[in-house]
Write a structure and sequence with these properties.
The complex is a heterodimer. Chain A has 15 helices and 18 strands. Chain A is of the alpha+beta class. By secondary structure, chain B is α/β, with parallel strands linked by helices. Chain B is about 25% helix and about 25% strand. Chain B has helices at about 5-10, 35-45, 65-70, 85-95, 115-130, and strands at about 20-25, 50-55, 60, 75-80, 100-105, 130-140, 150-155, 160-170, 175-180, 185, 190-195. Classes of the chains: A alpha+beta, B alpha/beta.
Chain lengths: ~475, ~220
């Protein structure tokens, strides 16, 4: 059986619930705390707080000593569980089998069935990670032939879509790649094992006798020697979500950004169950009291851009009596949705509504679906991840950036900076702290000997050196 | 179709880029400034709801920069083909497909040599679709006959993109314009005009135009 599993792990979920109300670029130091009121400890901190020295495990009082204005509200496990359920609903648009593992902050998707629609599962994994980032969640994704292999892949930032890929990865991985309990790993280390392959080579019976059946069961589920049935998570027929604003928002316009993230989650869930909504109820918790805004539609919709447009128009005439601290959105009854099915790269529906549709259809029929795409921006500081191909039913949103080249190379290319003349820079770009693609770079505008103007960067980590990434032209 | 560069508009017959006809831009090398030169026109087309179709661009058009220069990304389509035949076909389909809008084609596999009858087909397609149609070709083809209404040579130096009109229906060839560049991209704004050089063929002076040192996507 050729299954492919896709794991989505949300290692920073508690923090995400706090930071996702904050537009990118507004980088307040934020943290969440844990451990009760006696001596609360920092559970997780965002990059702005980490730059000031705040670290998980530190006492909140000590963290405040480092970052005076640090907000560190206590994490809310119930809210985290609700967020995971909303994300399970959202991710159902990509798979008919979604399984929810609340204790591990992990979703497992059986993605084999979606491959036909979505291309290879590695591409799907990356796409899910970028879409989640747009919703404000820092996800690690990975694929594997078994659920445990997918989880391991997500943890290591790998794509192991086949058994062969898994086998060859397991030959090289160190012991700590296995998702074991601390005591199990230590026991193996004491026995002198350093690599996964050494453990897999051991007779299972002896291993079970010395380290318990849990470990053996895990290894068998990882390699597929033992089935690992996943409990199917059922889509609900209603939706409610909320988010806390990290800083009070005084103007109704300032609510557009966080509301867009809530709408994005809702519309994903609606696509997943092929439904639309005709009524949306917004509730704003204010410094003093609360206020409501109700949005009614002519017909059921799940079009994020459309809903956002309506909402923006309403917010233009909406005054907040006092600054908002929290937003809540409740969707009305889920209704049948009659519009033409909108796939990722949609059937070009009504030619009158989209004049490019017949052309698109002709081009795709001969060249293949992948050959004809739109483009969109992605909220990621790393240039190679800050764009994506766009299906024509997806919004083409993009944050315009100054001093960016019009051409981006498919892969950054190593270069010798001595061969170039620096025209401008540096611009520091730092990102990827959550998914293992951690990087720090300084960007420069440089000119080569032929007069071409290029975008070069000096990477401090993970691969120190000079690279060319784009061309001004 | 206004180019977004006042001096260039004045230099071109019809006061801008030709509509319903081919324009050939012969580039000394890819990335000389050809895309930023066209972006003001593309932004205007997209702003009016028209589509811009890129056929076989050499690299990825980078959304934050394209959008940063005022172009609505929701009106951009990128088409990738596998060979010269498909590339021509896709370009012709795009030219005939939607009325109005713009097609930019980097003509996979035919930048140095293209059949006149093929170009003629594209010219007819551009006319039937009332399109702005831009073909990016190698500077070396300057000597070959073309059905295009406009043929420009583009080259750049330290400070400016140099445009030379090699052919313009209804105007005298040989005109040269300099559009100032900032960080390698053409800045919209006032530009300076050089004294005319009667009918110079700058294309002949660039034998090394294949010697690109930059990574490219799949182009032969």
């Amino acid at each position: 059986m050729n299954e492919t599993w896709l794991a989505i792990e949300l290692p920073h979920l508690a923090l995400d619930l706090l930071t996702r109300g904050q537009p990118p670029g507004r980088d307040l130091p934020l943290a969440v705390s844990d451990g009760g009121t006696q001596r609360p400890l920092i559970h997780d901190a965002n990059p702005a707080a980490r730059r000031l020295g705040v670290r998980p495990g530190m006492a909140v009082s000590a963290a405040r000593g480092l970052a005076g204005a640090l907000q560190a509200p206590e994490r809310d496990p119930a809210a985290e569980a609700r967020a995971l359920e909303r994300l399970a609903a959202w991710s159902h648009q990509y798979s008919s089998l979604v399984s929810l593992h609340t204790a591990q902050n992990t979703l497992l998707l059986e993605s084999g069935g979606s491959e036909r629609l979505l291309g290879e599962s590695g591409a799907l994994a990356r796409r899910l990670a970028t879409e989640l980032l747009e919703l404000g969640y820092h996800a690690r994704t990975g694929t594997g032939p078994t659920p445990e292999a997918a989880r391991l892949a997500a943890r290591r930032g790998l794509e192991l879509p086949t058994r062969q890929a898994l086998e060859s990865a397991l030959r090289d991985l160190p012991l700590e790649a296995l998702l074991l309990a601390e005591d199990q790993r230590e026991a193996l280390e004491r026995m002198g094992f350093r690599r996964v392959r050494e453990v897999l080579r051991l007779p299972r019976k002896a291993l079970a006798r010395r380290l318990g059946t849990d470990l053996v069961s895990y290894l068998d589920r990882l390699t597929g020697a033992r089935p690992d049935p996943q409990r199917r998570w059922r889509l609900p027929e209603s939706w409610a979500g909320g988010l806390d604003l990290p800083a009070e928002v005084a103007s109704a316009q300032g609510l557009v950004f966080p509301l867009r993230r809530l709408l994005g989650e809702l519309c994903g869930a609606l696509r997943a169950c092929d439904r639309g909504v005709q009524a949306l109820a917004f509730r704003f918790v204010l410094r003093e009291g609360e206020t409501r805004l109700d949005l009614g539609l002519q017909q059921p919709s799940r079009d994020e851009a459309h809903l956002l447009q309506l909402l923006k128009e309403r917010l233009e005439r909406f005054r907040l009596p006092s600054p908002a601290r929290r937003l809540e959105l409740e969707a009305g009854t889920f209704l049948a949705f009659d519009a033409a099915p909108a796939g990722l790269f949609p059937d070009p529906g009504d030619p009158a509504s989209n004049p490019v549709a017949p052309l698109l259809e002709r081009l795709r029929a001969r060249l293949g679906d992948e050959a004809v795409t739109g483009l969109r921006g992605v909220e990621d500081h790393r240039p190679e991840y800050s764009w994506a191909r766009r299906g024509l039913d997806e919004p083409a949103r993009c944050q315009p950036l100054p001093h960016r080249p019009v051409w981006l190379f498919p892969q950054p290319k190593r270069c010798r900076i001595e061969d170039y003349r620096v025209l401008a820079g540096p611009e520091r770009i730092e990102s990827g702290w959550w998914d293992g693609h951690d990087c720090r770079r300084d960007y420069f505008v440089v000119r080569d000997r032929d007069g071409a103007t290029l975008w070069a960067y000096h990477e401090h980590k993970p691969r120190p050196g000079w690279y060319l990434q784009g061309l001004f032209g | 179709m206004p180019t977004g560069h006042a001096r260039l508009d004045r230099a071109l017959p019809g006061g801008g880029w030709p509509l319903g006809a081919l324009s050939e831009l012969l580039v000394a090398r890819d990335g000389v400034g050809e895309l930023s030169l066209l972006l003001p026109a593309l932004a205007r087309v997209a702003g009016e709801g028209g589509w811009a179709v890129f056929v076989d661009p050499p690299w990825t058009p980078y959304p934050p920069a394209i959008h940063g220069q005022g172009m609505d990304l929701s009106r951009l389509l990128v088409v990738r083909t596998r060979d010269a035949k498909e590339s021509l076909w896709a370009c012709e389909q795009a030219l005939r497909g939607v009325r109005g809008g713009v097609v930019l084609s980097w003509l996979r596999g035919q930048r140095h040599q293209a059949d006149f009858t093929h170009l003629r087909r594209l010219q007819l397609a551009a006319r039937s679709g009332r399109k702005g149609a831009f073909l990016f070709r190698a500077a070396g083809v300057a000597g070959q006959a073309t059905p295009a209404a406009l043929r420009l040579h583009l080259d750049a130096d330290e400070r400016a993109l140099r445009l030379t009109v090699l052919k313009a229906r209804g105007a005298r060839p040989g005109l040269e314009l300099r559009l100032p560049r900032q960080h390698g991209e053409v800045a919209a704004g006032p530009e300076t005009r050089l004294p005319e050089h009667g009918g110079a063929r700058p294309g002949a002076g660039h034998p090394g135009d294949e010697a690109r040192s930059l990574p490219r996507t799949g182009h032969a």
